[in-house]
Every structure is written in C-alpha cells, then in structure tokens.
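Table S5 (text form). Sequence records supplied for joint modeling of the two-component complex.
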Amino acid sequence: MWKYVVKRFLLMIPTLLGVAVLIFVLMRIVPGDIVELRLAGDSGVVSEELLKSERARFGLDQPLWKQFGTWMWGVVRLDFGTSMWTGASIGQEIKLRFALSLQLAIMATAIGVFIAIPLGVASALKQDSWVDYVARIVSIAGIATPSFWLGILMILVLLVVFRWLPPMVYTPFWVNPWQNLLQLIWPALAVGYRLSAVVTRMTRSAMLEVLREDYIRTARAKGLVETLILKRHAIKNAMLPVLTVTGIEFAFLMGGLVVTEQVFNLNGLGLLFVQAVAHRDYTLTQALVLLVASVFIIVNFFMDLMYGWLDPRIRYR
Amino acid sequence: MAINVPFDAVEIAAAEEARAGWWGAVVDFARRRPLGAAGALVVVFLVLLALSANLIAPYNPVAVDFGAMLTRPNAAHWLGTDAFGRDVLTRLIYGSRTALMVGFGAAVVGSTLGAILGVGSAFFGGRIDLYLQRLMDIFIAFPLIILALAIVAILGNTIPNLVTAITIPMIPRCALVIRSTALSIREMPYVDAARAAGFGNARIIMRHMLPNVMAPYLIMLTAFLGQAILLESSLSFLGLGVQEPTAAWGLMLRGAAVDFAESAPWMAVFPGLAISLAVFAFNLFGDSLRDALDPKLRTL
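The corresponding structure-token record, covering 617 residues in total, follows.
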C-alpha cells in the first residue's frame, strides 16, 4: 500500500513538469511580450535600446533553457518571483483571489452534491418512472445551460422582480460573513447547478450498475432490509465514480470560472488568468497554470487513494 | 438450412436484411427512446435551419438599422432588435451556422484524432503507450480555457482556429476512453488472425480495430458536440472567439446584452435559450445513443 502511495505520488512530478514546459513554451509562442505591451501604452517612438534594457530587466534576453531553469529553480524553492505587470510578488497577487475562488468552488460543490446524490439515487431506484424522467431532463438541462447565462438571468430576475442587486464589491468571509455570502451565493448557485447535473448523472448510472451486481442479489436473498442494502452495499459502492467526477469538477471550478466571474464581477483566479495572458505576464501566467494543474493533479491523487478505502477489492501494486 | 440455398440468394437476403435492419434500427430507436428521438429531431431542425438561413431569415444579419435600436419583440421583429437595430431572430438563425460549424468541426476532428491515438496507444502498448499516456495526463491537467485562450492568441481569431483551439483539449479526453476499449479488442482472436495473415500494423488498426471502437467513438462524438458549442459560446462571450459582425450565440450575449439586460432582456434571454436548446438536444440524443450502444460507458 505505502509503496503504491509513494509511486503514485512520484508520478505526479513528470506530469507537473510537462505542464510547466507546455505553458512556458506556449507563452513564448504567443506573439508580443510584456515589454512591447507596456511600452505600447506610451504612444511614441520607443528606442531599440529601451526595449533591450527592459527585456534584460525581466531576464528575457537570456536563452530559453536558462529562463526555464531559473523559473524551475524558483518553483522548487516555492519562490514564484514577482508579477511582470504589477511588480508585486506572485504570492501576494494570488492570495486573495485564491481565497475567493476556493470559497466559491467549495460552496458550488456543496450545493451541487447536496442536490445531486439524493436525486441520482432516487432516479436510479425508480428507473423509467416520472421521477427518473424529471431528474434526467433537469440534469441534461443543467449540462446544456451555460453557467454564465444562468448568472445573467439570475441578476436580471433579482433586479426586475426584487429590485435588488447582490453586492458587487468583494468582502472576505472573515470580515463580514453575511455580506460575503450575499454576494457569493448567486454565482455558487449558477455553477452549482451545472455541477449537480454532472454528479446526478454519474450517481444514477453508477447506482444502476451496482444494483445489478451479485452482492446486492445476495443481500436481498438473505433477507436484509432494503434500506440497509442501500446504505451499506449499494450507495457506498456507487460512490466511487461519483467521487471521481466531483473531484474533477471541483478542480475545474478552481481555474475554469473565467466567464461566470466576469458576469458577477468577481475578481477570482479566472479573471486573473485572462488578464495575465492578455498582458503577456509570463511569471504570473506560469505560476497560475502550475497552481491550477497542481490542484487537479492532487485532487486526482487523493481520489485514487480513496478508491482503495471505499472498495477493498482494489489492490494496489 | 442455408446450405442448399444458391449463393447469390443468400447475399440478396442478407442485403435486404441489412436494409431493413438500418431503417428498422432507426424506427426501433425512436420507439424505444422517445427522449433521444426528440433530441435527434431538434438536431435535424437545427441543421435545416443553418442550411437554409439565407432563405428563411427575415432580415440581413449584419444590416445596422439605427431607427430600430433595442425594439421590443413585435410583429416586424419577433424577438426584438439589438443595440445596433439588428434583428435578433435573424442573428439567432445565422448563429446556428456558427454553432454547428464549430460544434461538428471540433467534435468530429477531436474524437477522430482521439480515437486514432487511443487505438494506437493500446495497439502498440509498452513504451509508446506509457509515453502517450503521460502526454495525455499533461493535457488533461492543463486548464482547458487557458489552452484555448493561448491557441487563439497564437493563431488568431478565425473560425477554423477557434475549432482547433476547442479540438485540442478534446483529443486526450477521447483517447483515454477509446484506449480502454481498444485494450480489450487487442486481445481478440481476429486481431491475432490478421497478424498471422501477415497484415501490417496500419491495416490492422484501420480495418480491424477502429471499426470495433465505433460505439465509444460515436458516444464521445455526440458528447463533444454539445461541449464544443458551449465552449465556443464562452470564448465568444469573452471576446476571444467569433468576432463581430459574424452572428454567434455567445457573442450576442456579450456587451450590450448585459448592459441593457434590464431594459431589453430579449437580447440576453433568447441567445442563451438557443445555446441551451441546441446543447440539450445533442445531449439528449447522445445519451440515448449511449444507452443503446454501450450503457456501461460513462460520459459527462
């Protein structure tokens, strides 16, 4: 078991390294660099020399492998450098936004799972009944509706019907929890609906599969009470794929809410991402991509370990 | 017994059965899965709409009419007009072209390349499989929207480039699913037989393995159709996808649609409905297709 954990852990390193190489190369291929973009603002003649000295200041005159080496050496020491655009340290830039994105992701996941699991289980238990049909239509609609559009509709309804708008300035939870929740509950609902749709579908299909297993028939044959069969045998086993998909969706929420954040005027990681790429802020973009990819890879790592805990039949090698 | 029947009679009967089988399968599908058939019907409707957009659209999609800015839905403009006085219904109809072009383009290319990679990876196994898998891991861990963002920034904002940007993240996701099916097919006797007969790797992959991963392939393809349309609308909404004045649903939700949402809600409501309806129909059809072909396979 421990051997597996260590091996699985070490396997995360080449993947992260690959992600690092990919974003490093991608950013250098994107036309234009930070120096050009910054100086373009001072509409006027920019001397070749100024461009050169500015590039040297950011270390962009170094050969690529050296730039990559410097960055990696920093990453190993958990030093991501400073943002090329603002000059502030990357940690400082990311901290508040990370807190906001994390809170939103947790709220949306909680809302989604809270709706999805009972709905998915009910849908599977009453397959082809009206409960099942309603659950399936509601969940397919959830996947089909763009979250950002749902957000626009929510704001519209709040505005037109209740003559009220959620606060548009972010207040951290520890400063004023009520104000904070009042703002974040709406995007969490908009995104949570999509997540609940994905999880409902997975719960349903996993339950349907598990309910046909031999051990369920055995449990019924020995006269076990139906609720116990469900609790102890069916749901626990069906939770494996549900857990995986929830984990993947959660990781996606950390960096993928670019559009929804824009609609709700939230300054989260998604918005920072778009700005960083637009500014050709290499250091910030690279750090953000590594961060989001790490969240995804670490979530996957824990999901794999959970498998062994939930399903003892899985043996690790 | 078939032994006494003349050879060509068997072939004719087989051909007839196949024809009946094809049409019969469609009828059977519609009867057994009404939800899926409803989805398919909407898809067919959308395709017809896109093909005949220039015939049925009441206005010119790019004609600006400052005399009719932000008109409420009425007899002349069924779904109202936008901030430039362009007819919303017309732009919705033309927008279906963009959505379907990007959707079909990205889904077909993405799942086909994914299938080839997945089958190849499973077929060759060993080191090639290992390296390909690691490569897929990297692309799957990479934030999807950033990949699309960077690709659009590198290649520029045209529709084919947009398709490329949406296709690339799809390839590894499809390859993963296809690979797991292909792994079991590789062990089938007919693959051994083909190898014993001296066929080359390319022929075995194309003729013997690819046709047998058709079920997961079709399922991934239909699942990707909806996702591609959603991704396109998100990118267009951010201003990174289709550019004005081309009609696209995501683009219609951008800018003025949000600013004037309170006074002219039709601008924000209808394009979103169009996106949802299209993706909903594709998913409804895809779901039923999956249930019919391979119920154990899981898509989003």
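Note: Chain A touches chain B through 52 residues (CB under 8 Å).
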